[in-house]
Amino acid sequence: MLNRSLALAAFTALTPMTALAQNNLPRPVETQELSQLDGWSVSALSRADGALPADLWTRSDPDVLAVIFDRLPAVYDSPATLGLARRVLFSGGEAPRGDGTVAVRRRFEALGKMGAADELATMASGAGASLNDPGIAMFAAQAELARGRRAEACARGRAANAGETPPVFFLRLRAYCAAVTGDRAAADLALEFARAQNAADAWYTGAIAAAGGAPAARPPAARYDNSLAAQLSMAAGLRPGPNALNESSTLALIALARADNAPQPQRAQAAWLAFRRGALSAADTRAILAATPAEITSGLPAVVASLRRVATVTPPPAAAGSEAGAVSALETASAIADALRQASAPAEFAAVSRFFQREIAALQTAPDVA
Description:
Layout: H1 4-14, H2 62-71, H3 79-90, H4 101-114, H5 117-125, H6 134-146, H7 150-159, H8 168-180, H9 184-196, H10 202-211, H11 227-236, H12 250-258, H13 266-276, H14 282-290, H15 302-311, H16 323-341, H17 346-355, H18 357-363
């Protein structure tokens, strides 16, 4: 993983110094010349919301961009570094001079690694001919799977220009899509193509059979290493084993967190990990954690117990000037403090603080006794 300094240095190299000049501010959208979007010009960020200038890419060597994108981590050291990465990757602009095929593929791969499911799906939809690249199409499909949009993911798989020997991912995706719709013959055919490429996988064979309604006597354990495996595991009703999320990609975490049928406590764990990685908002994370059934008490992130305690506090801490307000402020502060004490690393401590930002801000106006 890149450390923060290297990530900042990489993005500094990407961004022209003139980006800060006033005379380079983009013109209003309605006065800009319209052009066909591609994998470089497509954007998930408007200029008004901080997108970088349109000459971001054109002054860079595509080979250098490919290396930098490839070295970007899946998990960033801080929210500031993640915010910078998102700003760069979400910004569209003119393509660099030269063959940028590999570099633009790496751009979408970096989006997938960070778990930007919604933005990746949106950008892929506007990527034009770039979506013909199997690598971009693969990450677009994974993003749709992470969003729980099976139909869109399956359509990506069918439309992918994968040639005579499709990547194994697309064969497994097609097998999954066929199995969950009851077409076992098509699912078996897709797996047979995978076997012909010496890419047979006992787990996918067993999971797809279970998803198609023909589980083995001992079906495999659930796998959550990528969003396809996560959705397949849930469709097949596979039970997770210990430490099931240890190898999970961020897109897989999003898939679990957003799925109402995801097993517990894995769904809560996935939501918290995705929040820590900056791929899930505090509001969405709170809603998912709050929906955890009350009878689930073990294996949960420590923050869930504190959230449950905060939810029972009445009146809210902001009701200053009353004895009840003082008591509720103390109860809220105590619950948050317990979660902070259990943080095992600075990143966890920072995540808990961000998660309870609203409550902490309210405590600042609570009675002094709090």
